[in-house]
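Pasting as-is:
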Amino acid sequence: MPLSDHEQRLLEQMERALAAEDPKLASALRGVDLRTRQRRRAVIGAAVFIVGMVMMLGGAIMMTTGQSVGGYIAVSVLGFLVMLVSAYYVATSLRHMPAAGEAPKVVPLRGRTPARGGPRPRATRSKTKPSGTFMQRMEERWRRRRESGF
């Protein structure tokens, strides 16, 4: 049920009063745009990727000039692992970023969410038993694919 004009004005006045009285609470309740949050994660991941690259190359350069090769190899391997993890972090951030024209989704800031009510419900499989043996189901899939033109 939509709010009337009078109720909307009252709500806006209450929001302004809250923001004036306690700006930290108001910003926490307002939340962050999901696109902005994912973009920030991608930028942080890219910066960590560069740090990993510097570690890897620094270890390789120090290995050619140093006496203790084992320590420098460990630095290079650690740098590569940092690069790998940060690349995954960036990829997942970009994959979950909403499109530019999508309606903005707002998520509460981290640490300011209400107590969670337990784990997220899992998707359940249907209780119907598959018909036929494994090979029969595979043959049926193959037949459907060939008929549809794939």
